[in-house]
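Quiz preparation item.
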């Protein structure tokens, strides 16, 4: 694992990865994509805590909203929550969710298409000390390694936000 640090937060990641910053990323709000060679991606998003807490008092409420928003996508026909558990990330209460999304792919002549089973891993938490919220998540491809969630949680465990 190697060490990545920017804007006073950091995380360990596998040395085979590459990083891509959203061009609009700033210290206050931004997104980074961590690309794995097998096409998997881990996303790291952050923003101003006072903005998100106006709508979602807790990180758990924010996580629940995020999952419901994804489930409302036109291409999602069904969701199955596989796991949810509280975590501690750099001394903060965090919420981990593992969800299966049944995603419609290609509509046939009569309106029936195939579905892909996609797995989403996510961790949401608030950091009052840095006045930011953080979301670390992965939308796995159908060919993702079975143990990717273990690597994901290792990365999350290494996260330092202040």
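Solution:
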């Amino acid at each position: 694992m190697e060490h990545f640090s920017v804007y006073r937060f950091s995380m360990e990641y596998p040395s085979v990865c590459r990083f891509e910053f959203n061009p609009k990323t700033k210290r206050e709000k931004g997104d980074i994509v961590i690309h794995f060679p097998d096409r998997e991606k881990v996303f790291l998003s952050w923003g101003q805590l006072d903005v998100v807490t106006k709508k979602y008092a807790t990180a758990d409420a924010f996580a629940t909203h995020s999952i419901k928003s994804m489930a409302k996508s036109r291409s999602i026909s069904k969701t199955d929550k596989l796991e949810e558990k509280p975590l501690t990330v750099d001394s903060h209460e965090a919420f981990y969710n593992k969800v299966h999304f049944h995603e419609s792919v290609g509509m046939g002549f009569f309106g029936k298409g195939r579905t892909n089973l996609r797995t989403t891993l996510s961790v949401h938490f608030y950091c009052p000390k840095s006045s930011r919220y953080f979301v670390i998540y992965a939308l796995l491809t159908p060919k993702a390694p079975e143990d990717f969630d273990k690597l994901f949680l290792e990365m999350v465990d290494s996260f330092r936000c202040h």
